[in-house]
Structures are given as C-alpha cells and as structure tokens.
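ligand=pyridoxal-5'-phosphate
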Amino acid sequence: MGGETVIGPAAGSEDGRTRMTAGRPGGLLAIGGTPVVRLAHLADEGCAEVWVKMEAANPTGSYKDRMALAMIEAAEADGRLRPGQLVVEYTGGSTGSSLAFVCAVKGYPLRIVSSDAFADEKIRTMRAFGADVELIPSPDGITPDLIPSMMRRAAEITAQTGAFATDQFNNTDMVDGYRRLGEELIDQLRGPPPISAFCSYVGTAGCFLGVSRALAAALPHVHRVVVEPAESAVLSGGPPGTHHIEGGGIGHRPPQLHPADYDEVVAIPEAQAFQTARQAARAEGIFSGPSTGANLAAAVSIAGRLGPGHRVVTVQVDSGLKYLTGQLYSQAPGTAGHGREVAGDGGASQVEAAARSWDCVSAGVVRRLTASAMVAARGGQGNRGREIRRLTIPCSCCHSSSAVRAASGSSGVRPRHGATPSTKCCHAFCPGIWSQGTSSPTGSGLVNVTW
Ligand SMILES: Cc1ncc(COP(=O)(O)O)c(C=O)c1O
C-alpha cells in the first residue's frame, strides 16, 4: 500500500482542535482535531481506500464530546441554560458520558436516564463525572420500547424540576456539533483520490447529518450511506427488533433524519459488527465498539463496490475501552471471532463456531469449512497460522458463488443479482467474514480463507 496511512492533526496539534475549542476551560480544549487513518488490512488492493476518523481520541473516548459541547454552548448563548441550572438527558451512555464531562467542567448538575442494556463502563463514566444516573432495566438488550421509555422518564424529571432538557434526538445544535468533524476530513483528505462516500451508523443521526452536510457542501456528489442493524432495519423498510449494537437501531426513524438526507441504507447484522470490531482491533489497531464495527463493515462493502480510485470515509465512534466488560471482547483467544489464532484442531472448532454464528451461512458451508480446517490441521504443524485454503462457497441466499467472490470486497465487482447488498443476503456481510483472506484472481466463486 503506497502513500500516507495516517493524517493529523494529531493529539495536541493546532489546527482542528484549536479551531473548535479555543478559549474554553479545562479538558474541553482537548475536543476535536482527531487523526484519520487508512485501513491497511480489512480493505485490500482491489477496493477503494477506506479512511477512519479516530474519534476515540476525544477526552471521553467518543465523538459525542463534540455534540455535548455544542448543545450546552448553544443553550448558554441564547439563555435556555442558566448558570448552575440542572441539565437532564436520556442516553445510552455515550452522550451521557460526554455531557457529564462538559457539565462537570462548566458547573452544571446533571441527571441522566439510561438503562442496563448499555455498557457498564458508560454508566460508571457518567457517575465518575458526578452525574446522577437512573437506570431502566432491559435484560433483553435494546428493545424497540427502550428509548421511548427513557425519553418519557427524562420528560417527567424535566417537568418536575424545571431543568434544561438537552433532548438529543430533537436538538438541532448537536448536529452542528459534528460539522467541524466533516470539515476536518476535508482538510485532512484533500486527495486525489477524492472522498467518494461517507457512511455512519445512526442513532440520533447527528454525526451522519453534521458530517455529510459538511462533506456535501464541498463535494456535492459524495455518496451518503446510513448504517443500521439488520435486526432492526427500519430505515431499510424492515420491522423494529432487538439487537446489541449500542447507539442506534432505535426502532423508528430518528426525527431529524429525512430520506433526502441519504443515498443508501446498509444494514449490518450484529454478528458481523462485533466480528469486524474485533478484527479491526487485531488487524488494524483500531480499538472500538460494535457501532464502529458496523461502520467499518459497511465501509469495506462500499469500497469493494467502488474499487480503486476512490476514498470511503467512516468514523471510529468510540474507544474499545468502553466495551471491555461486555460480550464484545470477552472471548478468550482461540475461540470464534479471533481468526488469527489457530486452535489445537487446526482451527476446525473455531471455524465451525464462527460460521455457525453467521446466521445466513448454510449448514453445508459450515460442514465444508470445518472439514477444510481439519485438512489444514493434518497438513502439518509447521503451516499453522498461515495456511490459506481456497474454498468454493456458494452464497446461501442467492446460490451464486461468483457473487460471493464479488462481495468479498476484493474484486470490485458488483454482486450479480443486485446493485445494493440486500439486508437479507449474506452479500451484505461477506466482507466482514472473509476479510482476512484474499479472493482468488481466477475461478468463479473461489474465496481464500486464512485462519
Ligand atoms: C456507541 C454509539 N455509536 C453510534 C451512535 C450513533 O451516533 P448518532 O447519535 O450521532 O447517530 C451513538 C449515539 O448514541 C453511540 O452511542
């Protein structure tokens, strides 16, 4: 891979950060001005370049610091928020952590309504900054009713106390908080090649809207892609459902996001989002959470379609440190999802377990992958960890093996049976599964898998 693979302004530098936070007190000065890095392994030579804005470099480890600052400062400026007044918000914990940080520095008391469906690290972070946190139990995960019930409880508290409600879903100031992120990308990635596409997992859609508006102002033809969980793909026209990709998939259209704001929706299954986040940590050193995994999976898929000569940009939403006690990083090395490790049976058990967790992969494919892993094991200890097997893997949805190769992100060819990967077809998530292999240059439907 030629050319630069990381572009500042890096931490502590002037430029972006200074322009965003000049004159502000304490840790607020450290918001924004984050680096952007190019994927070196998950997107291969046949793809467009994929660049990732490293937002974990913000003070609470999340891009939400930008919007929390914007919401508070805009309310201060027009008198909606008075000195020392109570602030109230409903939040999965990312916005809450950032608001708790900003309110602590500026001296506002904060009451938060959240849920045990979200990472414990975020709840603890809000409390560490002094926020009063109330949790709504939701043992099944992020159900369609969870966010509405959190909103109702926050509205009750606001009515009882006369607090200022930041009300993130309906707050237009928070969208403005992300414009600078988009402007930084334009400064950092001047090209060639140009930024051709931007994709982002949506919750409030603030990041997507703020960044895509800034990009489109400079690059009118940029392809704007919203990302959502396949298990709750309401923007794709599907039913609301329960999932575990924190920060989005709220079960209804975010109020500030309109169909004219985007060009495409990509739905990513949560298993692929989790797997891609783990791969990004190990293969790229991009340590993040499930929503970043969804962003990366979508970006690699788009990059496969666009091919060389383009740049796809996405965002590392937040740091993997926020997810250490949850499911994402709880697997021991050598179990499913850790493709670089080879178990004692040559990888057969981990390949089987991983393949079974990809719900669109047929039983036949699982059997063949497992059998092939066993052959690899018999091939000798000396080859472990670097064996490459070439497998013919028919897509279990459309039964087109060449489409699988195309969707692997390496050939740059569109999937045969449709321009846009379907949410129900594994084309939408082949890149995440097979990204550790390189696809075969010849032979229809051949995919190289490394384990
Ligand atoms: C972890 C995480 N990822 C993604 C998002 C989505 O960001 P936005 O609300 O800007 O759409 C959020 C929002 O809460 C989040 O917490």
